[in-house]
Amino acid sequence: MRELTVSHDCAAFEVPAILDAHGKLTPDCARQARTRIDTHGLVILTGLLSASEADAGLALIHETIDDPDRVRGAFASETDNRYLRRDFCALPSTPPVTAFAATLAQRLEAVLGEYCGRSRPLLEVTTLTSYRGSSHQYVHRDPIGVISLLVAVEDVSPAQGGTVFVPGTHLYGGSESRQGGQAHALTELFRTRCNYRILRHNLAKLWRMRKSADAPLAPGEFRDRVFSTKWDQHQPNLLRFLLGKNAQFSLRTLGPRTLWRLYRQRAALDAHFRLVQTAPRKGSVILYRSDLLHAGPDNRSPQPRRVFSMSIARDLVEPKFWSDGYSPHPTLVEEPLSLGDLLDHALPAPSGATDRRRIA
Ligand SMILES: [Fe+2]
Questions:
Q1: Residue 3: inside a domain, yes or no?
Q2: Is 83 within the bounds of a domain?
Q3: pLDDT, position 42
Q4: How far apart (Å, rounded) are the C-alpha atoms in residues 196 and 212?
C-alpha cells in the first residue's frame, strides 16, 4: 500500500460567514452551511469570528493550559497527553468561557437548531493542543448523535495538524444505498487502508524520533507508545494491534478476505473517497457530524496547534457514551447547560463589522 495521501482542497466545504445586524448568520448563509453538512458531513465557516474574538478564545485556552490543576481530557490519545505531545483539556464553565460558547451558539443558531433541539446538552467545552511528536490519530467516528465545533483561534497550517475528514462518510437513513449499495462496506475498506498507512507513518516517525533533536523521546516513551499493554486507541501500539485489542485498528481488521477486497476495490476506493486536511484560518469554525470519519493528525511543526472545541448532542446520548467520548469539565457536570441555555445567555450587543466578518 502506498503512503497516506491527503488533499488540501477544502473549497467544496467552505462557506464565508455573513452575519445579520443581530450578529447571526444570514438565512442564505445558514442554508448553504446546512447543505454542506448534509452533503459532506461538515462545513467550514470562514471568518465567523473577528480577529479580536478569536484572540479572546485563545486567551481562554492559555488561561486553562497554563493552569497546573487543569482537567486533562480522557480521550484522543492518553499516551500523547501523558508525554505532553498533546494537551487536551476541558474548559471550566467560567462566565467568559460560557459567554464565548454562547456567542458561537447564537451566531450559528440557524445551523445548530436544524440538528439539535434546545433541550440537548452541551457535552463538553475543550481545548485541543498538539505539539511536535504527537501521533496521527487513526481515522475514526466519534459517538453518534452529536454536532462538534472546532474553532480556529489562530491560523492552523497543514504541518500543525489541521483535522482530516473523509467527506460524505457520515451515517443517515439509507446512506448505505449509495455506491450501488456498497457504501458502508467500501467506507470501512477505505478506513482500513488509511489506518494501515497511519500505523506505518506513526511507527516510522517514532523510529526517527529516537535520534531526533527536534522532538526527543522522553524516557520510556517509545516503549509506552509501541509496546504498552495500556488502553490507547490512537498509538501505533504493536502489542494491542497484534492481539486485536485496539478497536480502531488491529490485525483482526486485516484478514485475507479484507486484503483481497482492498486489492480488488482499489480503484473504487480512489474514485469515491478522499482524505481532506483542513487548515482553517484564524476565526474560521468547522462544524461536523460526529459520525463523519475524521482524525487529528500529528503536529509536524515546532508551533503548537491550539483549537477551541465544543460539542452539542443532537439526539439522546447514553451517559456511558457521554463520558467515553466527551470530557465535560466538573463544573459543567455540576451545572449542565443545554443549547437553549446558550441561546438565551445574555451577551453584549454586536459591535459591528470587523476585519474578516461580513455583515449583510
Ligand atoms: Fe474524534
A1: no
A2: yes
A3: 98
A4: 24
- CA distance linking residue 358 with residue 356, whole number of Å: 7
Mean pLDDT of the chain: 91
Q: What angle do CA 239, 242, 248 make, to 5 degrees?
A: 90
What average pLDDT values come out for the chain (360 residues) when binned by 10 residues? 82 96 96 98 97 96 90 78 89 96 98 96 93 93 94 95 96 92 94 95 92 88 87 86 88 90 94 95 97 95 95 85 81 95 87 53
By the 8 A CB rule, do 249 and 192 touch? yes
Q: Is residue 66 part of a domain?
A: yes
Give 211 Cα–ligand 1 centroid separation in angstroms.
30
CA 286 – ligand 1 centroid, Å:
13
Q: How far is the CA of 315 from the centre of ligand 1 (A)?
A: 18
Q: How far is the CA of 148 from the centre of ligand 1 (A)?
A: 9
Protein residues near ligand 1, an ion, with CB under 5 A: 142
How far apart are the CA of 350 and the centre of ligand 1, in A? 32
What separation in Å is there between the alpha carbon of 247 and the centre of ligand 1?
14
Q: Whole-angstrom Cα distance, residue 285 to residue 295?
A: 17
Cα of 141 vs centre of ligand 1, distance in Å, is 6
Distances in Å between the Cα of 50 and the Cα atoms of 57, 103, 265, 306 are 11, 12, 45, 17
State residue 205's pLDDT score: 92
User: What separation in Å is there between the alpha carbon of 336 and the centre of ligand 1?
Assistant: 22
Give the β-pairing of 18-19 and 14-16. Answer: unpaired
CATH code, domain with 106: 2.60.120.620
User: What is the Rg, in whole angstroms, of the alpha carbon atoms belonging to the chain?
Assistant: 20
Report how far apart, in Å, the C-alpha atoms of 227 and of each of 75, 199, 240, 241 are. 20, 13, 8, 10
For 134, the grid coordinates are 504527537
CA of 176 to the centre of ligand 1 (A): 22
Q: How far is the CA of 291 from the centre of ligand 1 (A)?
A: 9
76 CA distance to ligand 1 middle (Å): 7
Residue 152: domain span = 11-174+275-359
Q: Residues with Cβ < 8 Å from 299, sequence gap 6 or more?
A: 85, 130, 131, 132, 133, 134, 159, 160, 161, 305
Does residue 300 sit within a domain? yes
